[in-house]
Amino acid sequence: MSVLVNKHSKVIVQGFTGTEGTFHATQMIEYGTQVVGGVTPGKGGSKHLDRPVFNTVEDAVKATGANVSIIFVPPGFAADAIMEAAEAGIELIICITEGIPVQDMIRAKNFLVGRKSRLIGPNCPGVITAEEAKVGIMPGFIFKKGNIGIVSKSGTLTYEAADQVVKAGLGVSTAIGIGGDPIIGTPTKEAVELLMNDPETAGIIMIGEIGGSMEAEAALWIKENGTKPVVGFIAGQTAPPGRRMGHAGAIVGGADDTAAAKMKIMAECGIHVVASPANIGQTMADVLKAVKA
Prior knowledge:
The chain has 293 residues and is of the alpha/beta class. The chain has helices at 19-31, 57-64, 75-87, 102-112, 155-167, 188-196, 214-225, 259-268, 280-292, and strands at 11-14, 35-39, 47-48, 51-54, 68-71, 92-95, 118-120, 126-129, 133-136, 145-152, 172-177, 203-209, 230-235, 272-273. α3 (75-87) packs parallel to α4.
């Protein structure tokens, strides 16, 4: 079992024929992901990467039975692409696009309320279930199958954690890059909850960063409901207050937004917090050994 995506997921690509869509769809197909087609308005009826192209998501879903969509659409149109996918009944929408206006995302997030669609992102690397399906931009060769789930705001640190987990003799069940924007579809707590409920995930790595309260909310949930060990890391420990760092959501707005404050809360909630990302993999291996002993 896995969470969100697996070898049976039927994936369409919104922005299929563009440069980014083409490059990453090719990588996804090579990984073994079941990419069943794509959407580029005005190019319906044509073929791309030997897959059918449709004018709308609705057409694509009717023809292919797709249940997952990945979005490579420019920022000005990406919120509409999210809403179009939700309207067509896509169960999992993964939005890679960076730089979507906050106002647009508020509209898209409200549109999703009460619908069956789950949004991952925007401004995220996507989701990968190791050796089954890659729906995103992550380097697939790093991810070897195993029982460690990863939830991360940072794309780069997702790959770093996966690499360390493998080098520590473990492997990855599913890695979820939730995105670094202020408004995202699936917050840290929900992603952790998915992995906590997955019988094939034995431990969870939770990577956060300065800004917002998502890590604290996840930590409090883990304290009350956690059944598996969690290793945590917060990026941005040296970031000056008030300055946005990297991600649009990575800004220290108050005392609770700092890396130190988040790490303190996480530790108090029983999470094994590491001060350096270099220690993520080995700490997870050590914690699992201690649990089994």
